[in-house]
Design brief:
Layout: H1 3-61, H2 63-78, H3 83-95, H4 99-102, E1 104-108, E2 113-119, E3 135-141, H5 146-195, E4 211-214, E5 220-223, H6 227-237, E6 243-246, E7 255-257, E8 261-263, E9 269-271, H7 276-288, H8 292-295, E10 302-305, E11 309-310, E12 325-326, E13 331-332, E14 340-348, H9 351-356, H10 364-385, H11 390-398, H12 406-428, H13 436-452, E15 457-459, H14 468-474, H15 477-489, H16 495-506, E16 520-522, H17 527-540, H18 544-549, H19 553-562, E17 564-568, E18 571-574, H20 581-588, H21 593-609, H22 615-629, H23 632-635, H24 648-664, H25 683-686, E19 689-690, E20 699-708, E21 718-726, H26 728-740, H27 752-763, H28 766-772, E22 777-780, H29 784-793
Antiparallel strand pairs: 1-2, 2-3, 4-5, 5-7, 6-7, 6-10, 8-9, 10-13, 11-12, 14-19, 14-20, 14-21, 15-16, 17-18, 21-22
Length: 794
Amino acid sequence: AFPTDNFFSHLSSKKVSHGADAAEAAARERLAKIQADQQRRVDGLVKEQERWREGAQLVEAHAEDIDRALGVINSALETGMDWEALEQLVSVEQANENPIALLIHALKLDKDEVVMALPDIDDWDDSDPDSLPPIHHVAVSIKDSAYGNARTMFAQYRASKEKEEKTMEASTVALKAAEAKAKQQLAEAQKQKQRVQVMPQRKVYWFEKFAWFITSDNYLVVAGKDAQQNEQLVKKYLRPGDAYLHAEVHGAATCILRAKRRRRKDGRTQVIPLSDQALRDAGTFTICRSSAWSSKMVTSAYWVESHQVSKTAPTGEYLTVGSFMIRGRKNFLPASSLEMGLGVLFRLGDDASIARHATDRRDFALLEQEQMMAQEDEMQQKDEILPETDGYDSESNGEGEDEDDKPHVDEEVVETSNIEVEQELSEKMEATSVEATNVLDGDNHEASRSKDDKAVSFQTNAPPPKSGKKKEKELSRGKRAKNRRAKKKYSDQDEEDRRLAMMALQGGESSKKGKKKGSKIIAKDSEMQQKAEQAAKQLLVRDSKKIADNLDESVKDILAACVTVKVTKGSEGVRWNKFDAEVLELLLEMDSLEEQRSAANRLLELTKSTRIDNFSASLAGIIRTIKKHGVKSVSNITQGDGKQRKTKAEKQAEKEAWQEILAEDGIVDNDGDDDLAGAVDDSAELAQLTGKPTSGDIVLNAIPVCAPYHVLSQYKYRVKLTPGSVKRGKASKQCVEMFTRNEEGKKNVVDEGTKRDKELIKLGGENEWVKAMIGDVRISSAGASKVVKKQKGK
């Protein structure tokens, strides 16, 4: 481990050790309090027994005097004497030193009691004439005689003695239970001290913050837990070729099925079609993560392609956070059962272990598709090597025709039509200038003539053409009517007219598009057609560099510095196409050279301090500001704190310097992603995770995952979850205990790999298991009832 790992693990071990010591001290203190409380109760009962016994004995010893005092009090009360008058009478008699009155200590007539002050002659040392016998205050009832009060006191003594015996028995049991619990807590504290290990913090994958799982054929499925995560998933992680899954149920989350990709021989990345099994697994996951789980409703989900998901709402409406518009057809999946499972994935630590589990989640459909795609690539490479006309010539030769028959006839037709068009255009065009409209008309006429003469036009490897009636029958009713209206509307146009019209609308960009595979191959354009295209381009596409040449050299140099980029090592190029010709004309039309320089200098300052995505818009804004407020409005703008945007080279140099500093301290700034460099999909990350580790694998940590139960069929540690009433926290604790418990009564020897797996599961944080668990479940697995009974016993 690195020094930082040792340092922080030492801190954590100290914290755990202090916590264990505190728990041990608390257990000992709790046991001492229980013992002291039990002893206090027993002492109180013993004192109460002594009080009742001594009082009964004193009442028996002074029975005659007590009967006289009770007789006087009862006779006074029978005569109707007031209680206050009776107390005054007793006080007067005590002042006269009446021996019977001196025995009365207090009157409690509201309780029918009299507190007698009785001397204890038995404990009196009569050897000392000056000493007096100790006085005990005993409460007697005025409704009973002295001996009756003594019998009552002896009965209370016996009851207190029985209570003391029962209390001693109960306290013994309570003390034993408290001692056993204290011993258990002390043992757990000692285990915590011994369990402290140096465990560096594991790497968290990017998809672990979402709800996720890996399908049985190695596709990654990610779902959002709230509206913010739904928004983040679509905006950041939804790629072309991925599938967006949702359900028409309240609370259904945004779910994404990440497509696999492969790198072709030409260096491009190609998306591999999704498998049906992965779509069904993701659909089950989507339904179980919605309100259908708690309501136990069996329904189905649907999926759409990534380009069908939009954040643009219809006119007059708006979309809240986490909501999206689905445009186009929804592909509904079969209804799925509400069965989920909690399993454990283990991260492998070396290449040998990863290679050993390469076929755990094998996609057989992908293997067939890769073979088909490889064959298509080979066919495409062969087609690119052969000339364009080879396919046509091979067909002609196969039919036994001469090589020069059919192609030469068609070429002559094309050339003849071109000559006729040139003659017609020469009569219509003036010698001094050529108007683009006449050229376009001549080209249209030539194209129509070439169409009538059946110029060369065919499709590579295309089947023989079918009749129009048969094609119309294949189309739907609405499409046939739409085609008839379009044919009637554009009946005076041909293929060349439409191509030039589209080029005019797109500003000449259509000529930059390359031919796709299987597109039509049309005969070479004539010279007049090429002239027409060039004239249209001159009218529609304007060269920014030519307009920049009309600027002053100083202004031109400043603008060139704004758009200069490195082409290759040691060479630079100026991209004048970053500026629109209209914006450069506005700069050229400014009143003075000073204004032009100020606008160019301001743009150069902006390129050094901020990132500019649209140079034309920025320059146009500066020109408008100068025209409205003058040159001073631009020159007075400060650069804030003077910070400039760092280049890629500066950022790379800072990163390398920081890595060197960390390397000097023995820290390697590496997340383990070196082997994932150049990855085109998630396969490299998913290959590091396996659900059935072996004893020979190097396993780094355990990761909990909640997925459809049939996906976890090959996992070593799994439990089945169905809709129920157990909450996530309690359910996750039960699952962890089921994974890590040792089955009693079995003599089979547990291998080292299983011990290692259980230790890694124990080391996982409780928060990780709660996050992975789905709410309101019922655990269905072998041994689940035992775990529930054990937890209830605690």
